[in-house]
Specification:
The protein has 365 residues and is α/β, with parallel strands linked by helices. It is 39% helix and 12% strand. The strands form three sheets. The protein has a four-stranded mixed β-sheet. It has a two-stranded parallel ribbon with strand order 1-2. It has a two-stranded antiparallel ribbon with strand order 7-8. A hairpin with a 2-residue loop joins strand 7 and strand 8.
Length: 365
């Protein structure tokens, strides 16, 4: 047992560290700094191991537990490669558990606590069924499920239920959307298919894993590739910090292919600082679509993380989305909202209506 103050353990040479309740380690209580110190110390000792124990965290809380889980996901998807990869293990409740049915909960508890004879499962069941106990809390605490709380924009379970094996293919009609960033935040170019709304990242850049600022040339190439492969009917991108690309270069190169403007002032530019009400309306509609399982996506891990990180943010009479903890990125979720907004705008446009009625569509600019 050692002090929880990072400064007192810096420079130690551990062979094994057991870090308990990492779901409660955050910036505010010094837990994140403590974890960084433990990780640095262990890295300097050949063969050193760190065992992190945790209850399931609340998504978007900024806990060390969530950071570890995200790192494990990045390893699984190939976004990062470590010489000694992380081992993650959790015994979780079945997705078909009915948390209002005592019999279903009993079966789940028997599975989860099969090797924990010290746990009184009947007592746990009584706690879960207590009227004042939030279901989301029970699912996290006793079902080991990553469940969003009431402040989350959407639940992870609802988002996962929209995942599918389909992919956007060459020649598909799509819209593009982008919330760009140069340094700290991520950049995710989303393609959204007109026919069914399938959302798929076509370019992702995360400085946290890439360890350098956005490669603007690589983004340019991704945009060019999208216009080469697909029939892009609309493109919306936040203006800052790529004003030159968004307001001049891309409209000049691709403007004659687009059916409508992203905003009243710009062909591609969608200034989110000035159009907060439009974003709020769109975010509320997307959240409803996700809850109703009508927002198909390809299950991209980075996009999933950003969607789960997003928090509810009331704006006038709507519920928009925003960041919770400053380290929890939501840029992909914002791009998704813009993509769904542009898809709806295209489907409601005169050009699409005329095409649907059999008329030839000619766009003059």
């Amino acid at each position: 047992m050692v002090s929880s103050r990072a400064a007192t353990i810096r420079g130690s040479r551990p062979t094994l560290v057991i870090a308990d309740e990492c779901s409660e380690w955050t910036v505010s209580n010094g837990g994140r700094r403590l974890w960084e110190t433990i990780d640095d110390n262990a890295t300097k000792v050949d063969g050193s191991r760190v065992l992190a124990l945790m209850n399931t965290w609340s998504p978007g809380s900024g806990s060390v537990a969530e950071d570890i889980y995200d790192s494990w996901l990045n390893e699984r998807t190939g976004a990062t490669v470590n010489e000694r990869p992380l081992l993650y293990w959790s015994r979780e409740a079945s997705a078909d558990t009915d948390w209002s049915d005592p019999a279903s909960i009993e079966r789940t508890l028997a599975y989860i606590y099969d090797e924990c004879p010290w746990v009184n499962q009947s007592q746990v069941l009584s706690k879960i069924m207590a009227p004042m106990k939030p279901v989301a809390s029970s699912m996290r605490e006793f079902g080991n499920l990553i469940v969003s709380d009431l402040s989350s924009w959407v639940s992870k379970q609802d988002w996962d239920a929209n995942a599918c094996d389909d992919r956007i293919v060459d020649g598909d009609e799509i819209v593009l959307a982008l919330d760009p960033a140069l340094t700290e935040d991520a950049t995710v170019l989303i393609g959204c298919r007109l026919s069914d709304g399938l959302a798929q990242p076509l370019f992702t850049w995360d400085p946290a894993t890439m360890h350098r600022d956005l490669d603007v040339a690589a983004l340019d190439a991704a945009v060019a590739d999208a216009f080469d492969r697909f029939q892009v009917r609309a493109f919306a991108a936040d203006v800052h910090p790529l004003e030159g690309r968004v307001l001049v270069d891309w409209p000049t190169a691709y403007g004659d292919r687009l059916w409508l403007d992203a905003s009243a002032k710009h062909l591609i530019g969608f200034d989110m600082r000035a159009l907060k009400l439009d974003v709020a309306r769109a975010a509320e509609l997307v959240a409803d679509d996700i809850a109703n399982k009508s927002c198909p996506h390809v299950g991209d891990p980075l996009l999933t993380t950003h969607v789960v990180n997003a928090q509810r943010r009331p704006y006038r009479e709507y519920v928009s989305l925003g960041r919770g903890h400053r380290d929890r990125k939501i840029d992909g979720a914002v791009s998704l909202v813009l993509a769904r907004l542009m898809r709806r705008s295209v489907l409601e446009s005169d050009a699409y209506t005329r095409r649907s009625q059999g008329s030839k569509v000619v766009v003059f600019r």
